[in-house]
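Holo prediction — adenosine-5'-triphosphate.
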Amino acid sequence: MFGGAFDPPHAAHVALAQAALAELQLDQLRVIPTGQAWHKTRPLSPALHRLAMARLAFADLPKVMIDARETERAGPSYTVDTLRELQREQPGAELFLLLGADQARALPSWHAWQEIVQTAIICVADRGDGADKQPRFSAPKLLESRFRQLPMPALPVSATEIRNQIATRQALGPLVLEPVARYIEHHHLYQTA
Ligand code: ATP
């Protein structure tokens, strides 16, 4: 499971998915755009756009499925609810949760985080920014085996930076995916900061 706002999806999201496919022998990778992000303060773009951009961004990766369930669920999107559903749908499957280092650090603030760690192996990718040097969330000894580092090239890019570049009419950096950039332009997304 790879969750996120994907507002918009960018090259680091795709690189993280590629790293997971290469490293974890996944049968399937579910990219799951969040519905109501309880941990983000700004309102997200409509789910319709985020789903469409995710389909464009991940189109070339095998085994990736864009899963709309969190955008269809009422109330805040809790990862634990999604993992419970996946577990029910695929009994016996080994589940992995992909996270950037920032989200891994925030994990102890997530709803039912201990159940999350017991349900899925947590695979963490560095973001290639200064924050990677910050102390990591250190898992209690018993849970240490549930965490894995996901090797991937450091790509210091964020959706926030991309939205700001668009709102302030700056040139987009190389880590904005071409089909996603075209979609953004066509639908006039992120025009205001
Ligand atoms: P925003 O800037 O709006 O907060 P974001 O770029 O962090 O967005 P999200 O959609 O919130 O993107 O991220 C989804 C997942 O991808 C999170 O687990 C996040 O940590 C991870 N991620 C995002 N950018 C990177 C990056 N540059 N390198 C590694 N992981 C990343």
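READOUT: The mean pLDDT is 92.
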